[in-house]
Amino acid sequence: MKLWITRPMTAEVEARARRDFDVEIRESTLPLTREEMQRALNDFDVVVPTLGDLFSAEVFAAELKPRCRLLANFAVGYNHIDVQAAKAAGIRVTNTPGAVTDATADIAMTLILMTARRAGEGERLVRSGGWKGWHPTQMLGTHVTGKTVGILGMGRIGQAIARRCHFGFGMKVAYIARSEKSLEFTATRAGSLESLAGQVDFLVVAVPGGPETQHLIDAPILSAMQPTAMLINIARGEVVDETALIAALESGDIAGAGLDVYEFEPRIPARLIQLENVSLLPHLGTATEEVRSSMGHMALDNVAAFVAGQDLPNPVN
Ligand code: GLV
Ligand code: GLV
């Protein structure tokens, strides 16, 4: 059984992989090229791919008899893999849910606070040497206590954000999801995304990426938001129509945005970078030592189960 891990991992994950498997660990931190994706399917039994490795239907279709039988994806999101096409090619796909929940919810809170309290702008002011000192009306932001957060997508991560907002910050919680959630506090389920957008101070995107959610946040939803409201995205960039978002920010249709993900990541439009009222992070959602190790162990647990012929712990196809 030959295993290919497509990026460097934390030391403990690499050590376990080397101990337990016949593994090759790719040194590059960049996404696989098309040729490397074909190599992944042809030369290895199991591959651990991650974000940016675009296993599209064409990539699978190009291989008549792929050697690969499992893509143990290192990420909860798997919108970069066409899982139906993988299945048709006889390739299973797994992911790493659970491990990422708290860290990703923490980044949502970081962005809510940074954007509400103008923390990025303040940091830039201090570093520029231009700060003239405290005064009663200096750099006034938005108070979060008592405000309403609206959550689009109440899966594990959405619920972890809701809990933090409710218990930690005294916020009211509204959400939209396919089904009513039973939470340990009162939260309102909105009838439509448009009505959710219109009633909240912070709209947080926490749905998976992929064709079903692409551009859910578009110009009409942004214009339904209050001019004092802010958009936070910790999910996938393509859920938000970035061009429409920039227009809404420039025209003052909304007050600000906090983004950890981008439509054409890692490319970020210059118009977005020029805006003071946005907080921009480089996809840090799961970026802690502990979480990246847990994700790696989870991916390797799926590999181990596959090798032992057991049920896969985290199948997605
Ligand atoms: C990170 O974005 C993930 O999907 O785990
Ligand atoms: C602010 O620093 C205050 O003391 O109120």
Could you please describe the fold and organization of this structure?
The protein is α/β, with parallel strands linked by helices. The protein folds into 2 domains: 2-99 and 288-307, NAD(P)-binding Rossmann-like Domain (Rossmann fold, 3-Layer(aba) Sandwich), CATH 3.40.50; 101-280, NAD(P)-binding Rossmann-like Domain (Rossmann fold, 3-Layer(aba) Sandwich), CATH 3.40.50. Helices cover 37% and strands 14% of the residues. The protein is built from 12 helices and 12 strands. The chain has helices at 11-20, 34-43, 57-61, 83-88, 101-116, 119-128, 156-169, 193-199, 219-224, 242-251, 270-273, 289-307; strands spanning 2-5, 22-25, 46-48, 70-72, 92-94, 148-152, 172-176, 188-189, 202-205, 230-233, 256-259, 278-280. The strands form 2 sheets. A 7-stranded parallel beta sheet has the order 8-7-6-9-10-11-12, with helices on both faces. Helix 1 (11-20) runs parallel beside helix 12 and helix 5 crosses helix 7. The protein is elongated and about 65 Å long.
What order do the helices and strands come in, and which of them pair?
Layout: E1 2-5, H1 11-20, E2 22-25, H2 34-43, E3 46-48, H3 57-61, E4 70-72, H4 83-88, E5 92-94, H5 101-116, H6 119-128, E6 148-152, H7 156-169, E7 172-176, E8 188-189, H8 193-199, E9 202-205, H9 219-224, E10 230-233, H10 242-251, E11 256-259, H11 270-273, E12 278-280, H12 289-307
Parallel strand pairs: 1-2, 1-3, 3-4, 4-5, 6-7, 6-9, 7-8, 9-10, 10-11, 11-12
Helix pairs in contact: 1-12, 5-7
Bound molecules: glyoxylic acid (2 copies).
